[in-house]
Fold each of these.
Amino acid sequence: MRIRSAWLSLTAVAVLVAVACTPGGDDGGDEGETRQLVWAIGGAEAQPGGVHEQVAELWNEQNPDTPIRIELLPEEADQQREQQALELQAQGSGFDVLGVDVIWTGEYAENEWLESLEDVRGEIEGATLPGPFESATWGDELWVAPYNSNAGFLYYRTDLVDEPPTTWDELCEEAISVAEDEGINGFIGQGARYEGFVVNWLEYYWSAGGELYNEDQTQVAFDTELGVQATEFMADAMADGCYAPGFNTAQEEEARNEFQQGNVVFMRNWPYVHSLLEEDEEAPEFDIAPLPTFTGDGTISALGGFNNGVSAFSDNIDAAKEFVVWAATNEEAQTMLATEGSVPPTMASVYDDLADDPVMALLGDVLGEAKPRPPAPEWNEISVEMQRALFPAVNGEADIQSSVEAVRSHLETTVEQ
Amino acid sequence: MADTPVAPARSVEPAGPDQSSVRAGGFSERTLARLFIAPSIILMALVALFPVVYAFILSLNEYTRRQHVGFAGLQNYADALTDGRFWESLRFTLVFTVTSVGAEFLIGLGFALIMNQAFRGRGITRAAILIPWVIPTVIAAQMWFFMFNVTPGFINNVFGLGNFNWLGQQGWATFAVIFADVWKTSPFVALLLLAGLQTIPGDLYESAMTDGANALQRLWYITLPLLRPAILVALLFRTVEALRVYDLPQVMTGGAFNTESLSILVQQYVVRTPNPGYGAALSTLSFVIILGVGLVFVSMLGRQLVIGRTTER
């Protein structure tokens, strides 16, 4: 009897999580007539004192009749998704507003967990940057309201590099030669086998001109040749020392540590790193630039961030809808994201007012060119398949051509259904 | 489940069919015992058996992500058994199990023999040996990630290996995960073996020494045979645990470089890219594998218990 499969422990965990996350909808909400809206969102900024809480307070001041409170979800995106899924799968009304990662839109829409926002589309579309808006739609329908965004930057050492490179090849040449002179390493990004690896790979692939799907995501537009180019670049960078030795085990924080300690010349990372580097007096002198491309024209970045969805099982859909539209289009709330936290807003006009802030100024340029990963219901599976095919190829353990073809054929299985 | 202690005079003759002393209520002693045990058996069945049966039922159904599509028969099993990924993770799991349990046994036996000696500072040595076992596995895994990883690279610094990428290449990644597991659980094996060692009467060694047996002979002809039950229990526990390893490879490598264990694969299909039918099929398969290996040990142990005197688990 003491032999148990991992299944059992998983079940136990699931039960515990379910118990832990059955939220206060029943116990805390019945204060007279007004029932509090519940906003299920996670991450550092959802913590007490974080910027999401300040946004909630602002809403409560302006809308005392329909106050909202945050139901804090875990830090990890996967765990946030799992907690929301447990509530929504059971059709629970515990969450009214959901913090939805840009890559979950399709999955949530397909599961019928979200209330469509088509009736308020006009209001939102006019105010929002195009990339974040695209990430909020699936099947040509608006499912969530954009809230905050994210994009990759090139961080470089100003004490070692005069001008940031504009092409990937230039970057690698410079990374190798400077690193050799200084006795440090070249370039680091997110090369461990996880979602971040796919993000990094896509930035090469997109900057070569590639696409995964056509406009309305009904057909595969994957270009094998460009896929090979992107993968070959990474494999070469790995082999010739352009990438720092820890690249293939690095996530965001490992990359940041390397750069912060002055061990690398270049780094690809998210905007949050900027303030951490500025606060650290020991950190090397640095600046930020748009990510290079293969041609040297423009820039491209994978889009991150969170949007707000209205739960289809909410008891107060109208108020929840008002809130998500407000959070997407209220200038004060959107500005707050940038000024009180280091969270990139999605509202276009906010960036004009924040032109003095170097991070926001650069974001204003980069976000216009940022591309969302396809928010398809099967994105998680696609991502896992891409990791499984491309990671060994980048590490010189699999044939590049056939790995890229494997990605293409997997993408094709996703549209045939 | 040990039998309830009976009066010492009876324990010479273990409970046999001849002991059907009928009580006033009409129940024999044996029936009464079964009656008393029943609640705990039922509870254990609910806790342990129900999920297994439920997983099996799930595994016969087809899902598209979370949506139930219909009855699938054994299709999920066929898919799993033809999926190269299942065999790769099974291979890693077996390699991990055999090497880590083997190393843990040898090191644990060494530790146990040391801890069983009488010497100054024995208490401190015992405590020191047990420290790794006390650390929660995820924390140990994160710690060894930092030790092995290029950044910050403690191991590379200590041994002057430059930027050797332990976790970023085939083979060495497996080695690192196994190393961390051996570090973590050798003390546990040592603890179990130490308990076994302490049941061996000292006069056996004394008479062996009188007969002129050297240390190696004493180990081979006295310690190891008498330690057999404890060894089997230690190996059973460790093998079963190693077969369901999840946290160490998940934290240290994320399953990259052929370090994806069966449990990581199951977790992926249950949580990350949900497909309850396929996930349940995979977990049922790993359950069967683990059950099979467990039963081999239990049957060896059962024979041992009949022959030997020790009932220590």
Amino acid sequence: MSQEADLQMVKKVQKGDRRAFDMLVMKYQQRIAALISRYVKDSHEVQDVAQEAFIKAYRAINNFRGDSAFYTWMYRIAINTAKNHLLIKNRRPPGSDVELEDAEFYEGSDGLKDHTTPENSLSRDRLESAVYKAIEGLPEDLKMALTLREFDGMSYEEIADVMETPIGTVRSRIFRARESVDKKIQPFLERAAV
Amino acid sequence: MTEQAKESFSAWLDDNATELDVQRMMKSLESDPSLLNEFRKISEAKDLVSNSQPMNLTDGLWQKIDGLEEEIVPQNVEPSKPKQKLFKGVASVAVAASVTMAVLFSARYVAVANNESGVVNPVATNPAVETEASDSMIATQERLQKYLKEHVEQAAFNSGRAVMPIDSSTEIEVSTIEE
């Protein structure tokens, strides 16, 4: 399901649709950044290298034929970009690469969190607290769908089995839960930005 | 439609989007580009819930890509080369045209001198001035042939493609006149 949707999106990019590439970036940015953080330790550098990897991918997008999954192709670009970054900075890349199988399931990373200053840590703690409260305040069915997805890493099918509800309902509940969390934390994020 | 598109985007982030979801998202974005910002918020909420640092790598992405493309264009395209080629082509055409004009002019001149054109030449038909006129004509003809030869030789140096057919024809014409 995912590969077909990705391929469909890539074809739109190849036809010149930039928004389609934005969609691919939003979908894979966390995974790519987490992968790069295995090579590059500084969280700001990780974001720069990840963005550079996406730029390289965009410029080479016409070479993507769909023989492999988009993420597999993107994974190779990200690894090469991270290694080049280390070589330019005169740092040695790690002896072995992150395996694709590991990278596929490697999402969040503590290395991406910015703990560089006490202010950042404090801000981070406040944000985590706000998110926790937002999740706790959700209706039970939304909270359950969201936590099974985000904390237990279940697929939509598995959640549908556990909750004895159609997949369409799971989709809808997860979306509504995210939207609700977003509305509750937006004022906090806006204050943090000021 | 917007809510459906947002739900599709949420499923897209979870690898659960169908081709119909992709169509719905892109169609909605086409009619309302500000929806991209709503998508970003959903992505941010997902990042925060999964305890990841929210990021937006689409920020500044297109400025960088466009900047790179602007840098690349001058490297790939050398504007002086086509101009040089064009100038070379125009120059060779001009040389060829001037040589052709000169050859035609001289051929006509020779034809007039030999009265090949059928037009009555008052100088050639008058026996009193015939010898004097033919002497000056031969001298003029020789000067013209010399000039043409030099011109064609110069053209050959300027353009590697130039040829010098004038050599043999010059000999023939001059010998014809002398006879």
